[in-house]
Amino acid sequence: MPSRSEIRPGRMPPEVHPQAFADLHPPLDGHEVRVAADRCLFCYDAPCVSACPTGIDIPMFIRQLATGQPLVAARTILDANIMGGMCARVCPTETLCEEACVRNAAEGKPVEIGRLQRAATDAMLETGRQPFRRGAPTGRRVAVVGAGPAGLACAHKLAVLGHAVVVFEARAKAGGLNEYGIAAYKATDDIARREVEWILGIGGIELRTGARLGRDVTLAGLREEFDAVFLGLGLGATNALGLDEGGLAGVEDALAFIERLRQAYDLSGLPVGRRVVVIGGGMTAIDAAVQARKLGAEEVTIVYRRGPEAMGASRYEQELAQTAGCTIRHWARPAALSGEGGVLAAVTFAVTQLADGRLVDTGETFTLAADQLLKAIGQTFVAGDVREAGGLLDMAGGRIVVDAERRTSLPGVWAGGDCVAGGRDLTVVAVEDGKRAALSIDRTLRAAMREAAE
Amino acid sequence: MADLSVDFVGIKAPNPFWLASAPPTDKAYNVERAFREGWGGVVWKTLGEDPPVVNVSGPRYGAIHGPDRRVIGFNNIELITDRPLEVNLREIKEVKRRWPDRAMVVSLMVPCEEASWKAILKRVEETEADGIELNFGCPHGMSERGMGSAVGQVPDYVEMVARWCKTHTRMPVIVKLTPNITDVRKPAEAARRGGADAVSLINTINSIMGVDLDRMAPAPNTDGKGTHGGMCGPAVKPIALNMVAEIARFPATRGLPISGIGGIETWRDAAEFMALGAGTVQVCTAAMVYGFRIVHEMMTGLEAFMDERGYARLGDFVGAAVPNVTDWQYLNLDYAVKARIDQDLCIKCGRCHIACEDTSHQAITATKDGVRHFEVIDEECVGCNLCASVCPIEGCITMEPLVNAVDRRTGRFVDGSYRNWTQHPNNPRAQVAAE
């Protein structure tokens, strides 16, 4: 019997899409901003600031917002985090600033820092004005590889400091995962693109898209041509399930699914399965599962090999998926895929448990009928692009090793974002990496300039 | 069940909560709505001579807001009633007839001439109102015409007009005092000399509520120009409490009945005024912000408080706090307290630390063993109450008296002794007396 794929478009009437994919956290209006801002206690040595990877002076920007100066507040945010607008949308604030808010201890409800940050940064973005100016030209040129959050944050700070920057981006658009890899309802109104344009508005940053490291440019070549190089490469590959995928149709990376959705002009043309299984426990798993439901999948099941507390997705994100109608099944790993006529039909799972701290199979199995399987089990750094540096680039756990200033082991080369070892793979962490690297690059270049002058 | 009824200088009312002379008491319609909600009495908005005054047709009110736009201060530039005298008198008479058990006091303001007062008193008496209140407090508009606070700021005038009124009417006379004066005891004393039965205070405080930085004019304003108004609301309560206490404990005015006014919003506010000697209280701003229904909270709350404390009637606690109001020089300098932070209640905002560290005595830690931790350093704490004042959690920081213990800041043993400034060795005058 020929099998007809259940992965097809039009599972949801098109008129439902705008509402289904609307802003997850709609902006606060003026009154809501005042009420939310009033709750900030202006703490001493505020725990929320310590919890922010970019160290935004949160009590100060909230006070500036409360006193009717949203642009001044935005400046406070952007000084620390040039992607404050996107971070206000995609940061898991419930595990960062808002988790640290003392209001949790007072009444179990933090100040809505993320949404207040959005109010301020939206106001700035709406003016279209760039509050920063390019520094006096230093005559130094820096190559930034990767136009994701780390690369753009680095490039902007370098421009502020007066250096000329060329950003090399392999893909057609800048923005990295903000543009390609985050749920649509977290990045409505083309915010990722608008923020990139606004950042580049400072001037002095040349963006070359379609330029891939290892294909169109080489690290050696960049080191030759530029005074410094920053690598913000991201993670180029996704992890494999480690079982025979048999070339079945309907099996793909969750990131590819999200990317297709983010880049679609018309969601009604976007195919989705009837019964979708998502493997993984991180934010990408949630983003893929929730969006599959919103596109009209009848059954969406997230399967994760450990318990809820071990999931990379916060409790809030897990509940978001459950509210959207997704089922989350814990303690199971995919063991086998079965298909009919080359098309996925079911996934068999092995039930897992912890034994002496190790994850083992219990011997039980269960099978879920599925026509679409989305893999969200993490990404891997593709080291091949930089390996041509002759093995001089120190790696750990498959990622680039950097010091506190984000210097690699290779002189003149800095790195940041998901491609470096040890970080939490978050936009906000990548921004901090880019910022710190830029400051370090600036110090290094200026020291060399002084030396040359003497 | 506690008895809330009052007999204030012969004016009887089922409870001490009266509406002050102000916009809420300008018409029969409003006053009857108030009586239906349970208010014990009203002071009818100030009557004057015909022709009626004219109000601005722009903003009359301004406010300062606390968090969530709670009105914490309010001001107005409204004048006395702008309705014809005859209309007001007719309505007063009708309302009093329909609500005989409620206090009906009529506020008055006419030029400083005996004939004017004599004439209006006669007409008010015909309404069978229970008493009159002399408006010597209004600080805007009318004061420019030689009335209101222009009278209240000159004790001789206060005395003179009070005497005229006592001469020409059988009704009890309450003199309403302005706080826009250096020493409120002086006009109170003058009122008593003139024969007034009681004083009421405070009237509103001269104020500009804000500045419109676009128009560079006071906010709110009338066609670009602003004038000071009279401020009231919760923010003025401490000023009013002090002035009430001053009159209650001043020998020349002690025992003079007081109707307390100024920022009263709750039963507790009312009880505080009463503890400092007010026999009744008057409310305006809270009613204007929340409506007349608030009187239920006031009545039920005061009743519950009195039941709990065993006060059968208001007289059981009116003035009870007055003996404990004293001059600074009699405060016990041998007494000492230390701040205590309840670690279970502390939310670790650190405001106590930074307040003390930046602006006071460096007596609160920020960390302990490298961990965020706020604790009082007894060796530095002077017991100033700043930390408890700025703490956002009620009851988290308390000021604990030292009892038979060494004050680790001074090394002095606190044994419960009493020594005030007049007895202190550092006081040069005390030393002179001792030698």
TrEMBL record, chain A:
Protein name (record): NAD(P)-dependent oxidoreductase
Top-rank lineage group of the source organism: Bacteria
SUPFAM superfamilies (UniProt xref): alpha-helical ferredoxin, Nucleotide-binding domain
PROSITE patterns: 4FE4S_FER_2 (PS51379)
Signal peptide start and end residues: none
Lineage per the UniProt record: Bacteria, Pseudomonadati, Pseudomonadota, Alphaproteobacteria, Hyphomicrobiales
Domain 4Fe-4S ferredoxin-type per the UniProt entry, residue ranges: 31-56
TrEMBL record, chain B:
Reaction(s) catalysed (UniProt annotation): 5,6-dihydrouracil + NAD(+) = uracil + NADH + H(+); 5,6-dihydrothymine + NAD(+) = thymine + NADH + H(+)
Protein keywords: Iron, Iron-sulfur, Metal-binding, Oxidoreductase
Function: Involved in pyrimidine base degradation. Catalyzes physiologically the reduction of uracil to 5,6-dihydrouracil (DHU) by using NADH as a specific cosubstrate. It also catalyzes the reverse reaction and the reduction of thymine to 5,6-dihydrothymine (DHT).
Entries under PANTHER family matching the protein: DIHYDROPYRIMIDINE DEHYDROGENASE [NADP(+)]
Signal peptide segment: none
Class of enzymatic activity (EC top level): oxidoreductase
Pfam families: DHO_dh, Fer4_21
A single MF term (Gene Ontology): dihydropyrimidine dehydrogenase (NAD+) activity
Keyword Oxidoreductase assigned: yes
Protein name stated in the entry: dihydrouracil dehydrogenase (NAD(+))
Domain 4Fe-4S ferredoxin-type positions: 337-369, 372-402
CDD domains per UniProt: DHPD_FMN
Originating organism: Chelatococcus albus
Description of how the protein assembles with itself and partners: Heterotetramer of 2 PreA and 2 PreT subunits.
